[in-house]
From TrEMBL:
<protein>
    <submittedName>
        <fullName>Aap</fullName>
    </submittedName>
</protein>
<feature type="region of interest" description="Disordered">
    <location>
        <begin position="1"/>
        <end position="120"/>
    </location>
</feature>
Amino acid sequence: PAEPGKPAEPGKPAEPGTPAEPGKPAEPGTPAEPGKPAEPGTPAEPGKPAEPGKPAEPGKPAEPGKPAEPGTPAEPGKPAEPGTPAEPGKPAESGKPVEPGKPVEPGTPAQSGAPEQPNR
């Protein structure tokens, strides 16, 4: 027959943990270096002198003109038609005899008196 088991041994109590070390203070940062002064720019090179222009080429000689074509000959003129003969003039009519003048009538004698009133 099997033997009975042994009773278990009681556990050991846990050991206390190691306490944490306190943190180190932060180190101060490195101060920034001052900026360098700007270097002076390169001076501009002087411009090149302009090249002289090319001389103009001589012009071509003009071509000679063409001779003129002869004109069309004129047609001969037509002979003039004869004019219409003039009609003979009429004889002049004789004038009327002049009537003798009338004798002048004597004027009316002026009346004395007040002048007439003009109409208003």
